[in-house]
Amino acid sequence: MKLKITFGILALTLAMGCRNASNSSEQAISTDSLPVNQTDKKTQSVYYRFPTPDELFTFIKKENIKYNPEILNPVSNISRYVNSKAQTIALGVYLADLSYITLFESYNYSLEYYKAIHSLSEKVKITSAYDLSIAKRIEKNLLNLDSLKQISTESYAGIVEFLIMNNREKTLALIAAGAYIECFYLTFKLTDKNEAHNPLKTRVADFKYAFENLYSYLTIYSDDKQVAQVAEQLKGVHELFSSIKSSKKTKTKVRQDKEGNLIFEGGSKLEITAEQYSQLKEMIFAVRKSFIE
Amino acid sequence: MNTQNTILNPFKTAMATIVMLFLSFYAIAQDCYFYHEYQCKFPNTTYYLSGQSRSALFTYGMTSEFKLVTFSNEDYHISICYQFKIKNIRFRLIEDNEDKTVLFDNAEANYKTEVSFTNTEARRIIVEVSVPEVANAKDKDEKQCVGVLVHSRKTLREPKSTLGF
Hints:
Shape of chain A: globular
Helix content of chain A: 55-70%
Structural class of chain A: mainly alpha
Oligomer: heterodimer
Largest sheet of chain B: 5 strands, antiparallel
Number of domains of chain A: 1
CATH architecture of the largest domain in chain B: Sandwich
Strand order of the largest sheet of chain A: 2-5
């Protein structure tokens, strides 16, 4: 009899578990087909994705830029970050710094920054996404640039996946905001010359789309006080990026090479003026200062 | 009474463990956690994983999309993977501008599940995945995972103007 009751409870528990999981999934799916104004604000009907710091930095190697560790946020600053908002944003800043470091094969720095990241990830309770096994991988691959970059990319992607799957998009929004501002800051420090034909200026203009996706993401989760505060801090940056216009040159064409790979050519090209560049740089430096101090 | 508890406790513990394991597995399966990284095809090692990769639950007859950012002068590799038993799952890359130019449609390429492309200008691209309606599918009421794996690298393509070696 008791055995039957136990199995009955077990079956009921399983059925309830399945029903709950099923219901939550159903809700997530059904909202996809609804127009934006009919969906709950928390549920994204349009999913915005934005590149990782590693993806933002791919231009570095191409342009033969010299490594300068002095422009990074020192790990000694970590003691300054005492509340959860500051710690979460700083985590993003250090993740961007780690991406920059791994690109330049600065092995000693990579471990130091990893430790800072691990310490902050413990504080914001995401250590399962950024665990000690990563430290071991870094130590094992200190002389292997490609592996270090791979680890850095996978770690960031792992954090993104972990936070989305655990319904912690608000934390992701703050981390990404910190990471993006640090990426932009480092890029400006590396592309100091505001010359008309500086190839890195094109990259700054290219950041427009990535930032706009991030800003849209922040807006979606701005019912959270901390996310709303950060969105407000980034409002000026958003306005400046929005002012970067694209020149319609040709219609986008798709052609195929001999190996069967596609080439997407033409279309509009983003163009940043010297004034927009200077204003954006100034704004990014101010926001970065407010993030790290 | 005490004796009964002693006998039942290991049984209850075992049952609770089974329930927990089942629910954990069920939750992971339902959330498609890292599905794209485990199931989608990777390109060669010159590419790096993009944080823009994504997995989601789909049902038959459903279309969903997300917005991707691509940079100029970079190569991209996008592959899709799915739990559905059918093979005609469509994915399209559409430029996210006024023209809404369709850059790639796998329905015109035998429903292949991967595509590589070089991008000459920065673009916003909509990745659209559609699972067709299959009225008599045995699993038609099941929600199943679809993954989109994105990789990128700085382009290896030589500029057109290069002369000689």
